[in-house]
Amino acid sequence: MANDRQLISGEVPAGTNPKQFSRETQGNPMQTSVTSNDSKPLAGRAAAPLWLLTGFWISIAISVAVVVRRLVAIIHPSQSAPPQLAALDEAFASHAALTIAHIVPAMAFVLLTPFVFLRRTEALWAERLLFPLGAVVSVTAYAMNTYSIGGWVERSAVLLFNTLFLLSLARAYRYMRRGEHLLKRRWITRAVGILLGIATTRPVMGIFFATSRLTHLEPRQFFGVAFWIGFSINTIAVELWLHSRGRQSQRERMAVRSARQL
Ligand code: HEM
Q1: What confidence tier does 198 reach under pLDDT thresholds 50, 70, 90?
Q2: Are 42 and 36 in contact (CB under 8 A)?
Q3: Which of 17, 19, 138, 212 gives a 20 to 30 Å CA spacing to 106?
Q4: Nearest-CA neighbor of 57 among 133, 123, 127, 111?
Q5: What is the pLDDT of residues 230-257, one digit of tens each?
């Protein structure tokens, strides 16, 4: 039974049929656990590091907070918001339907991710829901991009990372249809890592807002930069994590091989 800290990316659930497992992992460098002769996964399944878990939960909290804030701003526009914020609120209120169509599925997607990654037993219902929700988030993000506050700098970041997100989700879906568990998990991890980049953009924007008196930068000038920084951080972090798991599983396989030769 998987431990709550055993995050994703190819975790081998205890009790997995070893034949099915090895078929699924053939040629998969991200295989993260090895099976012994008695078919039980061996020790050495890495728990998610604390930095990753902390980042995961903080990203979820930020994502929910921004959606709630945006919904409140659309339903009850504030009369006392600072001018920069009021201008942003007005911009999103002017295409409220599209904004709501983007942020409500986005929040649902984000709220499902702990069920997919951290539950003791895999929540397949939650995993399956990620695909349609992710597709809606992505399509509406492309549509939101036509109004982007940050102009072409933001637009280019969204085109790149939204496309990476959609392609990762599509690959995960394909592997799910083929019953290739580990590859599916790997690509879902990627998709979720990229999507949560939206949360990483927020503290970056916060820094730009906080220093705007000194820098004289306006949202239209720094939104795009914040999108590039936030999504890049997450995309790089998830790739480093996946590759470190790959290297670790290689070491585990070699250790098992030499133990068998003794
Ligand atoms: C692939 C992932 C995502 C992409 C590419 C994306 C893209 C976008 C874009 C282009 C905008 C319009 C920004 C502008 O007009 O300047 C936007 C707005 C917004 N997005 Fe997303 N988004 C993604 C995921 C999410 C997630 C996961 C959440 C939260 C759960 C979220 C919440 C919001 C909110 C609340 C807004 C309205 C603006 C605000 O209140 O700051 N998005 N998004």
Answers
A1: very high
A2: yes
A3: 212
A4: 111
A5: 999 999 999 999 998 877 777 777 888 7
Q: Are 89 and 73 in contact, with CB atoms under 8 Å apart? A: yes
CATH 1.20.120 fits 48-261, yes or no: yes
Say if ligand 1 is within 6 A of residue 199 CB.
Answer: no
Distance 260 CA to ligand 1 centre (A): 51
- For 191-211, b/e burial (b = at least 16 CB within 10 A) is bbbbbbbbbbbbebbeebbee
Reading the block at residue 165, the tokens are 């997100």
* pLDDT tens digits, one per residue of 45-99: 457 788 889 999 999 999 999 999 999 999 998 888 888 889 999 999 999 999 9
Q: Give the closest residue (by CA) to ligand 1 atom 22.
A: 141
